Amino acid sequence: MASAQKNIVILISGSGSNMAAIARAADKEGWHGKWGAQVAAVISNRADAVGLELAQSLGIATAVVPHKDFASREAFDAELMARIDAHAPALVVLAGFMRILTPGFVQHYAGRLINIHPSLLPAFTGLNTHQRAIDAGCKVAGATVHEVTAELDHGATLAQAVVPVLPGDTAETLAARVLTQEHLIFPQAVRGFFERKA
Ligand code: GAR
Fold this sequence. Notes:
The protein has seven helices and seven strands; from the N terminus they run βααβαβαβαβαββα. By secondary structure, the protein is of the alpha/beta class. A seven-stranded mixed beta sheet has the order 3-2-1-4-5-6-7, with helices on both faces.
């Protein structure tokens, strides 16, 4: 029995493969019928994000808020919040959204803002996670879905996936191996969010 509409807004900056994994899981698993949950919009800070076309091909509304058009992080985040809030979201998902968010933004979406990070947090916060894992001699790497708090790449862990680091791996080969797992754990974490709310 579907309950009230629960909109998901997904923020992307690039290829949008995690966004598509979530949208496809929502469709395949009937999230709308189960919980009223649906991907209502995909918003990018970059007009050239490949994921925008992917979202449109999945029938999802898209918007672009170019961060370069704003003089400050606060001004960008204010416009981004307005565009997100037009959908009254139950959940805001950062899926390869490569902007640091202001504390005001994070506070505004407290309890309904999640991110995927391509490392086994708390290891390797920040950028270049795969190369850093290789350089550190790690035997395993992975990805983490977590609640977003004001501190970058912190917040409660919702899901993690582990992959081996293989001899001869480059940042690219490791990233590709991790990404296949991201496509499993991210939809799983979003599903878990709505299951807990049900
Ligand atoms: C993913 O690997 C995600 O973990 C990473 O960006 C990629 C986006 O791919 N996120 C971060 O690095 C966040 N700091 P996608 O656009 O194909 O989903």
